[in-house]
Specification:
The complex is a heterodimer. Chain A is an alpha+beta fold. Helix content of chain A is about 25%, strand content about 35%. Chain A has helices at about 5-25, 90, 120; strands spanning about 35-40, 45-50, 55-60, 65-75, 75-80, 100-105, 110-115. Chain A is elongated, with a radius of gyration of 20 Å. Chain B has one domain: Orthogonal Bundle (Arp2/3 complex 21 kDa subunit ARPC3). Classes of the chains: A alpha+beta, B mainly alpha.
């Protein structure tokens, strides 16, 4: 009942979906202006706009649990230093795309990149 | 007489489509992807295309969308379902008339399902003016693949029995005996 053409079609659609998915993962979206949001202990600590001609600075984020240094370089952000033992966040390196985030669990710091369009992107199932 | 029989059969198809549309709305979808659905009403569009042709398929799917949205849905859902249904019916009719030796009804239905989801994402991106929605496309393509496979198999079983019955009771002429019944 399922012909050879069907099988070829199924495989090619799966491949196309995989290709589009990896394409989005690699290139991502460049929509709107992005900004970085640093949250410490669940509260917003700092919000910095990003861009090609963006700021180049190192921010020290003190919390009750430890101290981290966040480096903002143009449109990229990374955790430069963390005094926690595992330093997973430091090893994650730079992030630059909207939606990416770095989390430092021991010191309870979250660095998120968001764009001013990302509020619109969150389409709920009802309005869709 | 044949004309009236055809009209009655098409309106029956529309009624079945609306029923499936409403039942489908009650079934929860286990995927957190907006726009994912079973597409049961696609069975009806496919049957109309197979039994009568492109024009009748379009009539059935357009009527089904409009009345279905009036009964269970909103204006925005009408926009998505109508655009998706029209385009997927066009694609299915095209595939059925030119590639029916290559694809079975399951393959044609898969084409229709994937087209439906692609159109929905495009229309949603245009109305919400964010192309970020295309990130859902790969997931919707895979979901459309499996729901299309399912609806295609259902349509195949229905079609096998329906065509012979329709010819027996005189709703269809002998020349409409379809290749699926001969194949299986």
């Amino acid at each position: 009942m399922i012909t050879k053409g069907d099988k070829i079609l199924i495989v090619s659609i799966l491949l196309a979906a995989l290709l589009i998915f990896t394409g989005f993962q690699v290139y991502g979206f460049a929509d709107g202006k992005t900004y970085v949001l640093i949250e410490a202990d669940g509260r917003i600590y700092q919000k910095v706009s990003l861009g090609e001609d963006g700021p180049n600075l190192k921010l020290t984020v003190p919390t009750a649990h430890g101290e981290n240094i966040v480096e903002i370089n143009g449109n990229k952000v990374r955790m430069l230093y963390a005094d926690c033992p595992d330093e997973d966040c430091v090893r994650q390196g730079f992030i630059s795309r909207s939606g990416q985030m770095i989390v430092c669990l021991p010191n309870r710091i979250v660095i998120k990149i968001e764009s001013d369009k990302s509020a619109k992107d969150d389409v709920d199932a009802v309005s869709f | 007489m044949q004309k009236h029989r055809k009209m009655i059969f098409l309106s029956l198809l529309v009624a079945f489509g609306i029923g499936l549309h409403i039942i489908e709305n009650m079934i929860p979808i286990p995927f957190p992807v907006p726009g994912a659905k079973l597409g049961l009403a696609n069975i009806i569009s496919l049957l109309a295309v197979v039994i009568y042709g492109l024009k009748e398929g379009l009539i059935v799917s357009i009527l089904r969308c409009i009345i279905g949205a009036l009964l269970a849905g909103s204006f925005s859902s009408l926009l998505y379902s109508l655009s998706g249904a029209i385009l997927s019916t066009l694609i299915m009719a095209f595939a059925y008339s030119y590639f029916k030796n290559i694809f079975s009804l399951a393959g044609i239905s898969i084409l229709g399902g994937v087209t439906h989801n692609f159109t929905q994402v495009t229309v949603a991106s245009l109305t919400l003016s964010t192309f970020g929605l295309y990130i859902y496309l790969p997931f919707l393509m895979v979901i459309g693949l499996f729901t299309g496979l399912f609806t295609g198999l259902v349509a195949n079983f229905v079609n096998q029995n329906l065509s012979t019955t329709l010819i027996k009771i005189g709703f269809l002429g002998e020349e409409k005996i379809n290749h699926e019944t001969k194949l299986s």
